[in-house]
Design goal:
- The chain is α/β, with parallel strands linked by helices.
- It has helices spanning 15-28, 74-80, 94-97, 111-119, 125-136, 142-152, 157-162, and strands spanning 2-10, 32-39, 47-55, 66-71, 84-92, 106-108.
- It has one domain (2-162): Pyruvate-ferredoxin oxidoreductase, PFOR, domain III (Pyruvate-ferredoxin Oxidoreductase, domain 3, 3-Layer(aba) Sandwich), CATH 3.40.920.10.
- Strand 2 and strand 3 form a beta hairpin.
- It is globular, with a radius of gyration of 15 Å.
Length: 163
């Protein structure tokens, strides 16, 4: 197994949160992990991305081709679609980015709607996106749940449970 995931969006959308949690899940699941980030702006609104490569074999670098692109904004799709591997997929929330795609490489997942339904707050959409990726990869969600508990412990049981 050797996958590359790229999370793209505007500064302030939680790219580092999603990327950091995914990297921890992969590492704790026994995979070798390599991450890097690209910052085009330190001000909310500029495009950034966080990339994770994980493998069951030792890895020493990232790679150009992306297997899963998590698009938190429309700019991510136009900027990074060309980096998709032959069987790569783009997951996005059509309602949030206000555009829908009908190509087979696109998978519309209503991150915000699911977050509101499950937790009552759209800010938890990143947790939904993270869970979607782990589900697509067929990974056990127990490690993810433990990381969420660790991350939100100080915010109380209610916030932890909603995430």
């Amino acid at each position: 197994m050797d996958y590359t995931i790229r999370i793209g969006g505007e500064a302030g959308q939680g790219l580092q949160t999603i990327g950091g949690v995914l990297a921890k899940v992969f590492s704790r699941s026994g995979f070798h992990v390599f991450t890097h980030q690209d910052y085009m702006s330190r001000i909310r609104g500029g495009h950034n991305f966080y990339q994770i490569r994980f493998s069951d074999k030792e890895i020493m670098s990232s790679r150009e081709k992306v297997d899963i692109l998590i698009a938190l904004d429309l700019n991510t799709i136009s900027t990074h679609k060309g980096a998709l591997s032959e069987e790569g997929i783009i997951i996005y929330d059509a309602a949030f980015i206000k555009k829908s795609f009908d190509s087979p490489e696109f998978l519309n997942i209503p991150f915000e709607a699911i977050a509101v339904e499950a937790g009552g707050n759209r800010i938890m959409a990143n947790t939904v996106a993270t869970g979607a990726v782990l589900g697509m990869l067929g990974l056990d969600l127990t490690i993810f749940e433990n990381i969420i508990r660790e991350r939100f412990r100080k915010k109380g049981e209610e916030i932890t449970g909603k995430n």
